[in-house]
Amino acid sequence: MKSDLVDKAAEIVTDPLVLVNLVSQRVRQLNSGRSPLIPTRPSMGAADIALQEIIEGKIKLGEKKKEEEVIAE
pTM for this one? Predict the structure, then answer.
């Protein structure tokens, strides 16, 4: 995970715990077969992809009952 991506994503999702949960949930989605919403390079890991998607506004935080979920747009 690249620290510059974390810094940029932290400007968008200011609560560190929410950012960690958002990235974690998106990484699970990517690892289970969901397609990235951005162009990727072979050197990018799932966390880098998730962070870049947050930076580009491709995913946002939504609510589902009492749980938070990642909504891909």
Answer: 0.82
